[in-house]
Design brief:
This protein is of the alpha+beta class. It has two domains: about 1-45; about 50-200, OB fold (Dihydrolipoamide Acetyltransferase, E2P) (Beta Barrel), CATH 2.40.50. About 30% of the residues lie in helices and about 30% in strands. It is built from three helices and nine strands. It has helices at about 5-45, 50-60, 190-200, and strands at about 60-75, 80-95, 100-105, 105-110, 110-115, 125-130, 150-155, 160-165, 185-190. The strands form two sheets. Strands 3-2-1-6-7-8-9 form a seven-stranded antiparallel sheet. It starts with a helix and ends in a 14-residue tail after the last helix.
Length: about 210
Amino acid sequence: MNVKREADLVKRNTRYEIRNEVSMKRALFSLASALLFCAAQAHATTIAVFTFDQLCEKAEAIYHVRYVDRRSAWDDAHRTIYTTTTLRVLDPVKGEAREISLRLPGGTVNDTTLTVPDFPVFHGNDEMVIFLTGRDGAGYPWPVGMGQGIYPVVRDAAGLAKIALQPSVNPSPLAKPAVGKPTPETIPLKDFLNVIRTRVGQKAPARSGASGVQ
C-alpha cells in the first residue's frame, strides 16, 4: 500500500470515527432525554391532587412574584439541561425573601432543546402567586403540586390585579357556587392573598408608601 492510499484510508477512517462520535453523543442525549421524560411522566402520575387548604398547609413558602430572568445550562455530568428561573418577590405571603430561584429540568442550550411535559416554563412579564416546597438536594424549591401551586396574575382594563384560575389545574379557594351559577374565573388579587393569610394564620404586612400589590 503506497503513502497516498494510506493517507486516504486514514482520512476516511477519521471521518467515520467523527461521525460515529457525533452520532453516539446524539444517541446518548436522546436516551437521557427519553429517560428523563419517562421519569417526569412517572413523577407526574404520582403527583397528588391537592385542595386549596392542602396547598396552603404543605407550602413552605407562598409569594406573589414577578419574572426576572432565566438561564439554561447542562448539569455537571452534561446529561440533562436545567433552567434556573429568578423571580422577584412582590409580597411575601408566607415566608421571607426578596428574590427566589427555581431550577427545573428542561430548556435550550445552543441548538439542543429538552422539553419535559407538565413542567412549568416561565416567561417575561409573568406574574403569579406561587406555592413552594422546601429546598431540594440542589438547594432549590419546587412549586407544590407543579402547576397546581402556580396561580397566574392578570390585570383588567382598569389595571386591577386578579388571579386567573386555571380550570382543572388550580384548586379554588372559593366555595362551590350554587347550582346553575357559573364558577368564577378570576379573583381579585388582594382578596386571594387575604384568603391565603387567613388559612395560614398570617397577617398582612403593614406597609407605607408604594406596594408591590396593586
